[in-house]
């Protein structure tokens, strides 16, 4: 069982290395790699979730997908505070 565990770890490492090499050829990787503290694994997960930036016409579409849209809770004459919504895809918004 321990031997199988180590074998699976090696397979995961190999797949991760292939994914990093593949993702590094994309324009999105070039942009995302400039964000401080955003590592290869996070970039891979993000691009796997949202796909290419070319699928979106406006940055607000990505913000909405991630649940980063502003929401205001107002009624009648009371104007509420604007907050970031908790909507969007579970993984990309966390």
Protein architecture, described:
By secondary structure, this protein is mostly helical. It folds into 2 domains: 1-55, no CATH class; 57-94, no CATH class. 49% of the residues lie in helices and 6% in strands. The protein is built from 4 helices and 2 strands, in the order ααααββ. Strands 1-2 form a two-stranded antiparallel ribbon. Helix 1 crosses helix 3 (40-50). The relative contact order is 0.10. The mean pLDDT is 80.
Give the gist of this structure.
The protein contains 4 helices and 2 strands. The protein is mainly alpha-helical and 94 residues long.
Set out the fold topology.
Elements: H1 2-23, H2 27-32, H3 40-50, H4 59-65, E1 70-72, E2 82-84
Helix pairs in contact: 1-3
Share of residues in helices: 40-55%
Radius of gyration: 19 Å
Number of helices: 4
* Shape designation: elongated
What is the structural class? mainly alpha
The spatial strand order of the largest sheet comes to 1-2
Counting structural domains, the number is 2
What portion of the residues fall into strands of 2 or more residues?
A: 5-15%
Distance between the termini: 34 Å
The major pleated sheet works out as: 2 strands, antiparallel
Number of strands: 2
Low-confidence region ranges:
none
Keywords:
2 domains; 94 residues; mainly alpha
């Amino acid at each position: 069982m321990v031997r199988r565990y180590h074998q699976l770890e090696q397979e995961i490492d190999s797949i991760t290395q292939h994914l990093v090499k593949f993702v590094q050829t994309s324009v999105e990787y070039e942009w995302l790699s400039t964000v401080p503290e955003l590592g290869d694994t996070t970039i891979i997960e993000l691009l796997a979730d949202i796909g290419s930036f070319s699928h979106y016409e406006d940055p607000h579409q990505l913000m909405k997908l991630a649940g980063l849209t502003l929401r205001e809770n107002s009624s009648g004459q009371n104007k509420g505070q604007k907050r970031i919504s908790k909507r969007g895809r579970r993984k990309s918004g966390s």
